[in-house]
Amino acid sequence: ASLQHLPGLFGALASARATLLRGIAESDPCGGLAARLAAGVHEEPPAGLREGGLIRDGFQAELDELRAIRRDGRDTIAAIEVREREATGIASLKVRFNKVFGYYIEISKSNLHLVPERYQRKQTIAGGERFVTPEIKEYEAKVLGAQERIESLEYGIFVALRAEVAALAPPVKAAARAAARADVLAGFAQLAEERDFRRPTLVPEPRLRIIGGRHPVVEQMLVETRFAPNDATLGKDEGSLAILTGPNMGGKSTYLRQVALIAILAQAGSFVPAEEAEVGIVDRIFCRVGASDNLAEGQSTFMVEMAETANILHHATPRSLVLLDEIGRGTATFDGLAIAWAVVEYLQQLKGGTPRTLFATHYHELTELAVTLPGIVNLRMAVREWGDRVIFTHRVETGPSDRSYGIHVARLAGVPQPVVARAEEILANLERDEYGGDGLPRRARKAGGQRDGAFGAERPLFPPPASSPAAPKQDDPAAAEVLSEIRRQAPERLTPLEALTLVDGWSRRLKKETVPKK
């Protein structure tokens, strides 16, 4: 059935202007083989090859004869019976069949004197005798073996046809490849027409520029709203590594996926869901997206995440497209942040150049890397606040985000109000300690206590007076211990005397540790 469509398909493409389509049209449609199979193989063959009904009538003379015997058995017996009555003059002559003796001619006693010599006696019965003839024996053999012979003969014919097809395997495979190519191109064309896909430009340089990009699947699932298109620009001049921050449900994962799908479609030869797209050839696309485990092999969710991250870091090249979503989320906050920070630095310093990378994260501290390291830019999912409501615009903007709105999402999900209120209270307390006493973000320091910048170590915004003997050093263990105790206090539960006693004790301990000994 497929071969029968090829002449029409290839003929329709013969007038095409594109070289690729004309190449399809010049393929051999295997018309002779199609005609042979159409004449031989039944239109609706059985499920099994040895059940009969596989080969068409008229394809083979012996098969047709056997089928006629099977189909017209009663008519043949009736014809033999009429012919024998006329030849012998015995009006009561009958041709009958039973499972023991098969087919036979039955003659009554009163007519036995009319039996011709060619009849062979087979059995004597009470009312007469039974005879057979060479014709009846031959017919019996044909009828009883017809079905078995039909099945065997059909299978033999099928095997012969199969051998004919195998002998023509090269042109059949070439026709199949041509039809598959036409199918893919027709699918691409239909998508481009129905969904407003545009023709991308492929360039050898490792850059990516997408204007008004859309996710080809998500946009089809939206019913009451329209998909919010977004731009994406990655390259040596614009910044090859983008740190994407923003709220939960803001669209970060969708943005990562749509960029990858646009690159894949472009390199596959399809138009893409974007107003414009310039895609530098990508050697591989690496993804660390989603959460999964492999408990059967003893791998936790975080272990799987780290294994995938390791694979990316070992194999990514400057021509790769790397998508990283929430690296480090499966462990303690500082552990995860440290890993994510180091991964970004590693990719930024990759030999030969930074691969085009989208790094989605809720670690807002990572946005500082856009200031301290070249080639890194900040992007954020835009949010609009209206009173106590948060509106997710699903738009990508330049710049960092400082909030994830996870508590807002918890409220939308139906988390009890007391839990939401307490979470907001705890979040406010945590955010107060985001910066240290030296005015620097805590996570920005390196081991030596200095921040890595273009102009060396930066001074604190409000440094303690140099002349003050009580000014604690940055790495002073006593100061750190006192500060820890202060954080654990609940001032509203202390009496004035208890508060004064605590302050006096802390003051004495700091003076003892910080005043130089004489």
How would you briefly describe this protein structure?
By secondary structure, this protein is of the alpha/beta class. The chain is built from 16 helices and 14 strands. The longest helix has 34 residues, at 134-167.
Give an overview of the whole structure.
- The chain has 518 residues and is an alpha/beta fold.
- It contains 16 helices and 14 strands.
- The strands form three sheets. The chain has a six-stranded mixed beta sheet, with helices on both faces.
- Strand 1 and strand 2 form a beta hairpin.
- Helix 1 (2-13) runs antiparallel to helix 3.
- The longest helix is centred in the first third of the chain and has 34 residues, at 134-167.
- The radius of gyration is 44 Å and the shape is elongated.
- The N and C termini lie far apart (103 Å).
- The model is unreliable at 437-441, 443-463 and 466-472 (pLDDT under 50).
